[in-house]
Amino acid sequence: MSLVLDRPLAVGSAPGKLILFGEHAVVYGQTAIAAAVGLRSTVSLWHHDGPTHIRNSSFDDFRLRRAVSMALPAHGIAVDIGSELPPGRGMGSSASIAVAMVRAAAALAGEQPEREALFERSLALERIFHGTPSGVDNAVALSGGLLRFRRGPPLELEPLELAQPLHLVVLDSGSPGSTAELVAAVRAARPRVDRVLDAIGRLAEQATGLLDDHKALGNAMNDAQAMLVLLGVSTPRLSELCSLARDAGALGAKLSGAGGGGVVVALAEPDTVPAILAAAGRREVPAFALQLPIPSASPEPT
Ligand code: PMV
Prior knowledge:
The protein is α+β, with helices and mostly antiparallel strands. It folds into two domains: 10-159, Ribosomal Protein S5, domain 2, CATH 3.30.230.10; 166-297, GHMP kinase, C-terminal domain (Alpha-Beta Plaits). It has helices at residues 62-71, 93-108, 115-130, 136-143, 179-188, 194-207, 214-231, 236-247, 273-282; strands at residues 10-21, 32-51, 53-57, 75-83, 146-150, 156-159, 166-172, 252-256, 263-268, 287-292. The strands form two sheets. Strands 1, 2, 3, 4, 5 and 6 form a six-stranded mixed beta sheet that branches. A four-stranded antiparallel beta sheet has the order 8-9-7-10. A hairpin with a 6-residue loop joins strand 8 (252-256) and strand 9. The longest helix has 18 residues, at 214-231. The chain is globular. The model has no long low-confidence stretch (mean pLDDT 94). Bound molecules: (3R)-3-hydroxy-3-methyl-5-(phosphonooxy)pentanoic acid (PMV).
């Protein structure tokens, strides 16, 4: 048949993220700092004679089908969804799929929407996954880079500059956390935990001024982890991974994302990164190093 059928009708992609400061507090209007990572999700739309359906997906989830039916025409499309991001690890896999999907849908319709419109559309999809997302994951998936985010209104989105790269090690607890459940648990614990949420937000705001003082930034990450423990979203396993990283020389470590499982992010001097990776390896903890800023995490030109 024709070569045209060998090419997708439209493709969209977007990076995942790590939250460095401010998770949970960001839901209630506090500041968060988050960074895009080099792992991406991609949505490809193919011509199909029949109802629109998911043809291939790197994970199976009924919410993906609802997102597809919200974002795409009901007929004529086979959808392939690929993600390099592990689901449920606090690395923004659902938001990166949501952004990739609205980008693909816009390309299919021949539209070039403003970033604000893509943000709102992707947030509508993200609500299918997480109920009441702050939008920080979607903002990072759309803009790339390192950002200071406040949901507003008005929304505040400030790209943050680094004089020196940040060297991070991500350690995977091996178990997923449910963002929707953890956000609901924190909501149910209010107003008892409001002072902790305020402290997490204040620390995120202070950390925007510490990005080039790595020792102070690492201490702030340790403080953030202590606050997340108080909030009730850490687990013994996540605390253990923080200790593992610190004992191997990390300047600081904390859970990243909603908690309950997922990943720990550790800040390190470049020459201690191998020791942290080796310590993780000895305990059979999956871990990888990354550096911010990540040029490959830059957004698509939409
Ligand atoms: O677990 P993740 O990657 O979806 O991150 C959630 C971050 C929260 O602050 C807990 C929720 C949100 O919507 O900001």
